[in-house]
Amino acid sequence: MLTQKSIKVFCTARRYDKSALFSYLGSRYKTTIIKDAAIVELSTGGVAIFFSYGVSVFWDVGYESQKYLLDEISEYSKERFEKPIVEDFNYVIDNSQQNPKITRDIFILHDDSNLVKLAISYPLSQSTELYYFEEAVITIINRNEFLVNELVKRGRIKLPQKQLSMERGRIFREISEIYLSYGFLDVPEFFWEYPELEPVYQSTANYLDIKPRIEVLNKKLAVIQDLLNMISDEQKHNHSAFLETVIIILIAIEIIISIIKW
Fold this sequence. Notes:
Strands 2-3-4-5-1-6-8-7 form an eight-stranded mixed sheet, sandwiched between helices. The protein is α+β, with helices and mostly antiparallel strands. The chain has eight helices and eight strands; from the N terminus they run E-H-E-E-E-E-H-E-E-E-H-H-H-H-H-H. This is DUF155 domain-containing protein. Keywords: Membrane, Transmembrane, Transmembrane helix. InterPro entries: DUF155, RMD1/Sad1-interacting.
């Protein structure tokens, strides 16, 4: 009977200080650095893989060792999350298999090599990081739903110009961070050097629906972009209305002065 072992994925921060973290891991553990990943072989058993974009994948690592390692590297985290994003999977080793496959969140590997684990860890880490983006986009939409409701009910957004500008800046900053991080969702450079492992990556990415989720995320980002444009148009309208009011007042004053002089 095949023994199931655990895979635990943690997204704990927006990113790690890659150079400092990988240097530290190399000084403390048997570590192999490949591109933007550090593969750490633990003396207590199991393998931990750390990605520069704030995700860790633990293969057959006990709870205490996971907790110890995550606490140990916390000082290298940038914009650490209060609550990490966690996903669980399992794997078994079946030497009768020719290629790795996945069914019902269980990976069936034909060998126990770290490169195969890394090939699978890439889409696992992308999926977990993508979950963070999905939640961030939903939060932005929900937080600004009142702006759309204001426009529907009143035909205008009844907010001070300064508050509108601040909200517009906040939304722009948040979606910019997402767009700037989009590069990690591409096929990693690792597979340029190990093309024989790319089918493993692709099959896992397909199982996790990464491509369809990116397409949905892009549509939601388009909705937010429309919201930004709406706020911009409202600001322009408010500014034009203010200028028109000032002009009318000035004309009225000029007429009054002319009547008094007459």
